[in-house]
From TrEMBL:
Residue intervals passing through the bilayer: 56-74
Pfam family, one: HTH_18
PANTHER family found in the cross-reference section: ARAC-FAMILY TRANSCRIPTIONAL REGULATOR (PTHR43130), HTH-TYPE TRANSCRIPTIONAL REGULATOR RV1931C (PTHR43130:SF3)
Organism: Paraburkholderia gardini
Protein name (database record): HTH-type transcriptional activator RhaR
Sorted UniProt keywords: DNA-binding, Membrane, Transcription, Transcription regulation, Transmembrane, Transmembrane helix
KW Magnesium (keyword) present: no
InterPro entries in alphabetical order: Class_I_gatase-like, DJ-1/PfpI, Homeodomain-like_sf, HTH_AraC, HTH_AraC-typ_CS, INH-QAR, Tscrpt_reg_AraC-type_HTH
Domain HTH araC/xylS-type residue range list: 175-273
């Protein structure tokens, strides 16, 4: 069962104003900032909300935003160093206010796993269907789209298409390391580096990471990189060697073995099976690879 709550910001706090299942304890899984053009100009009251959003994100809550709501999300700092989308008419304003965020308004939804951004106000439907797919599966998403008389999400950039990392495990130090790993998916990160980023001793970090995510850091990194490779195979015209290099594999043979281990297909077979018409598709992977 899906539980819906509404939250409202006051001068001192963010409080729940509606709960579809009142009277029992809860912890949000996803928070959505709706379209709000006032948010593009009104920054005076943002401190309470942005602080609360950062706290919720640190606890593993997924944060999503639509249109002008993306400005609020960007003010938390959670989008720095990442791509984000908003309404195309807000592109230049967003770029000026947030120079450390790569605004990509050609795309309806950009999904980083822990944060999602969507374009204009009506992009809420695309965002909603993406969240339905993540929470309830592809079949339910398609049935929902049919019921709503809307097309299911098209060929968009999805950074973690089949790997939704476990973030709501309650270990804030490990969540911090997971979130940092998202921005490091093009290179191999050692346990020592991750431990330093999480402010933990390496042995403690390793034990807590495995407990929280149910996998070792190396496998976690490999899954992130394979998901990135899948998107590049579908949406770009880069060859397999270029894709392997682009996600940090110096040995293309090693990349092929890891890809087949997790996907069950070789990179070339995956492209042939899932990239129908890719030769005419825009080179999205190239345009969205961080500098």
């Amino acid at each position: 069962m899906m539980r819906i709550t509404h939250w409202q910001r006051t001068q001192k706090e963010v409080a729940c104003t509606y709960d579809s299942t009142p009277g029992s304890a809860y912890e949000p899984a996803v928070l959505i900032l709706p379209g709000n053009l006032q948010a593009t100009v009104d920054t005076a009251r943002d401190k309470v909300l942005t602080t609360w959003l950062r706290q919720m994100h640190a606890r593993g809550v997924i944060i999503a935003a639509v249109c002008g709501g993306v400005f609020i999300l960007a003010r938390t700092g959670l989008l720095e160093g990442r791509q984000a989308t908003t309404h195309w008419a807000l592109h230049d304003q967003f770029a000026r206010e947030f120079p450390r965020v790569r605004v990509e308004t050609d795309y309806m939804v950009i999904d980083y796993g822990d944060v999602l951004t969507a374009g204009g106000v009506l992009a809420w439907a695309d965002l909603g269907l993406r969240l339905v797919e993540r929470l309830l599966g592809l079949a339910v998403m398609l049935e929902t789209a049919h019921y709503m008389n809307v097309d299911p999400p098209g060929r968009e950039q999805r950074f973690y298409s089949d790997f939704d990392p476990r973030l709501k495990h309650g270990d804030s130090a490990i969540v911090k390391a997971q979130q940092w790993l998202i921005s490091q998916r093009e290179c191999t990160v050692s346990v020592a580096e991750l431990a330093r980023h999480a402010c933990l001793e390496p042995r403690t970090f390793l034990r807590r990471f495995v407990k929280a995510t149910d996998m070792a850091p190396l496998e976690y990194q490999q899954r992130l990189r394979v998901c990135r490779a899948r998107e590049m195979l579908v949406f770009s015209r880069l060859n397999v060697d270029e894709i392997a290099s682009g996600i940090g594999y110096e040995d293309v043979g090693s990349f092929r073995r890891v890809f087949r281990k997790f996907v069950g297909l070789t990179p070339s077979d995956y492209r042939r099976r899932f990239s129908a018409g890719a030769g005419n598709a825009p080179d999205l992977a190239r345009s969205l690879v961080p500098d």
